Amino acid sequence: MKRTLVVGVDGSPESRTAADWAAREAVRRDLRVHVVHAWLWQPLAVPVVQDRAVEARRAREILEETEAELTRRHPTLALTAEVVPDVPVPALLRAAKEAEMLVLGSRGYGAVAGFLLGSYGQQLIAAAECPVVSVRAGRGGPVSAADGAEVVVGQQGGVEESADVLRFAFEAAAAHGAPLRAVRAWSLPPVYGYSPGSLWVANQLGGLEPFEKDALEQALEPWRSRYPEVDVVAHVEQGSAGHALLSAASDARLLVVGRRVRDSVLGTRIGSVAHAVLHHAACPVAVVPHR
């Protein structure tokens, strides 16, 4: 059986954009798309007229309309679909348990406000075991290799720490026939910022930026070897990782960032960098969990 890409739909323009992006990605990667619409009959404790049969029929119609549209646009697509009798977060987490990725739609409110990701989207991105791609409404349209748009990936930490994120980014770049820009942002530790003597020592050792460049090259080396067809640009920049990635991805086809998987008394979190790019990047954003 083909590997699976799961997309959640609810009949909104945002989810239709996400479904079309997912279908195009699946065709490129020879994946099967599994469309999921979560619907659970929940009587309201307020005086509002509800009709269970009507709502159930509408749930089926949403799925049928999505299937028909994807089949029309992508006739070679391997496609399955189901209405899951549950609320969205657990329904999609179960559906994506063994998936290659989960695709969601997001609403955009312009360049300043960015995404309105929604509580469901944030919960799914924080808890999913597979990469989650958030596609902004109206911004997930087809991009050809001739357009030259890059896949941009944020790299941090060492070789092992960033392996899952880089693997996803290289796979995406290879599938799209696109160049890859790997961005590593760095900041001066407090001891260097407040101690001229420490800066002098760093300069004697070759400076901090060469160290960061070397760390990025070491992380990229195994993936350059595995994907020799991907043209890679290594980009090291001093400053905020969020700002560096948003600047690099202004015309990107896809932005890939990591989310550290760790237990917390506050529950699962997506991290400050992922949060920033999810809310402000115009292109689709993939969040890849890693240890």
TrEMBL record:
InterPro entries: Rossmann-like_a/b/a_fold, Universal_stress_UspA, UspA
Protein name: Universal stress protein UspA
Gene3D superfamilies the UniProt entry points to: HUPs
Organism per entry: Streptomyces amritsarensis
Residue ranges of every copy of the UspA domain listed in the record: 3-136, 158-289
Family membership noted in the UniProt record: Belongs to the universal stress protein A family.
